[in-house]
Design goal:
Strand order of the largest sheet: 3-2-1-4-5-6-7-8
Strand content: 15-25%
Structural class: alpha/beta
Helix content: 25-40%
CATH superfamily: NAD(P)-binding Rossmann-like Domain
Order of helices and strands: HHHEHEHEHEHEEHHHEE
CATH class: Alpha Beta
CATH architecture: 3-Layer(aba) Sandwich
Radius of gyration: 17 Å
Length: about 250
C-alpha cells in the first residue's frame, strides 16, 4: 500500500478489527449501489471516502430541486444533471484514487444480472418494490450479499440479506413479491431528511463491514428506526422454506 493511502485510510487502519488487511480487502472490492438519491447519497460518499476500489452507481433519474432537501451528494448547481454523474462528481472530489462507473439506466433484470455478478456487495437504495425485488432476485441468483434500506416519513428500516448463510432470509422471505403492499412515495407523504441519512449511513456501515471481513452483519435481523423517538427496534427474521425466490436454493 502506498504511503498516501496509508495516510488517507489511517483512521481505519488504526482499528484493530480493520487494520491493513481490512483496508486491502476494501480497496480491492467492487460495490454496486442501486439508487443515487437520499439513501444512495451517504452510501456513495462513505464508500468512496473509505476507498472501495470500484463502485458502480445505477440510477436512471435526473436531479430535481426537490431532491436537495435530503440527497446530500448533490448540489444546486448540478440540478438537471443525471444523479449518477452528479454523485460521481462528488465521490471523485472526495477520493480521486478509486474507479467509479456511473450507469444512467433503469435497473431491470437484464442489467442487474450482469452487474450483480461482478460485485462483491450490493447496496439497494432504490425507492420502489419492483426494483427491490429485481435486485433481490439477482443477488440470490449470484449468491451476493445485499444491504437493503428504505425510508418514508419518519420511519426507516434496514437489513442484510445474505443467502450464502443457510439461515439468512432473502428480501422476498420478509416482503413476498405477491403480497398486497401499499407502495408510497416521499413525493406524496414526505420524508424527514435525517431519517434517510441515518438509514443510508447504516447501509454504508454494513457494506463496509462485509467488504472488510468484520462482523457480524445484520443478516437475520430487521432493524427499524423511528425518527420521532430517535429509537431503534430489531426483529429477528428467518428464511422462509417456501419462498418463491430462495426457498428451494441451497446455501452457496
Amino acid at each position: 500500500m502506498e504511503d498516501k493511502h496509508l495516510l488517507r485510510y489511517s483512521r481505519h487502519i488504526l482499528l484493530e478489527e480493520f487494520g491493513i488487511d481490512g483496508q486491502a480487502r476494501v480497496s480491492a472490492a467492487h460495490a454496486l449501489i442501486i439508487g443515487a438519491g437520499g439513501l444512495g447519497s451517504p452510501v456513495a460518499l462513505y464508500l468512496a471516502a473509505a476507498g472501495v476500489g470500484r463502485i458502480t452507481l445505477v440510477d436512471h433519474d435526473d436531479l430535481d430541486l426537490t431532491n436537495l432537501q435530503r440527497q446530500i451528494a448533490h448540489t444546486t448547481s448540478r440540478v438537471g444533471m443525471s444523479k449518477v454523474e452528479s454523485a460521481a462528481e462528488a465521490m471523485r472530489a472526495i477520493n480521486p484514487d478509486i474507479t467509479i462507473e456511473a450507469v444512467k439506466l433503469r435497473a431491470d433484470d437484464e442489467l442487474l444480472s450482469r452487474l450483480v455478478a461482478e460485485a462483491d456487495v450490493v447496496v439497494d437504495c432504490c425507492d420502489n418494490f419492483q426494483t427491490r425485488h429485481a435486485v433481490n432476485r439477482a443477488c440470490v441468483a449470484h449468491a451476493k450479499p445485499l444491504v437493503a434500506g428504505a425510508a418514508i416519513r419518519f420511519d426507516g428500516q434496514l437489513s442484510v440479506y445474505d443467502t450464502r448463510d443457510a439461515a439468512s432470509p432473502c428480501y422476498a422471505c420478509i416482503f413476498p413479491p405477491d403480497a398486497d403492499f401499499e407502495e408510497t412515495r416521499c413525493a406524496v407523504l414526505g420524508v424527514f431528511a435525517p431519517v434517510v441519512g441515518t438509514i443510508g449511513t447504516l447501509q454504508a456501515n454494513e457494506a463496509l463491514k462485509l467488504l472488510a471481513g468484520i462482523g457480524p452483519s445484520l443478516a437475520g435481523s430487521l432493524l427499524m428506526f423511528d425518527g420521532r423517538r430517535s429509537a431503534f427496534d430489531t426483529l429477528r427474521v428467518a428464511r422462509d422454506p417456501g419462498c418463491s425466490v430462495c426457498g428451494h436454493r441451497p446455501a452457496a
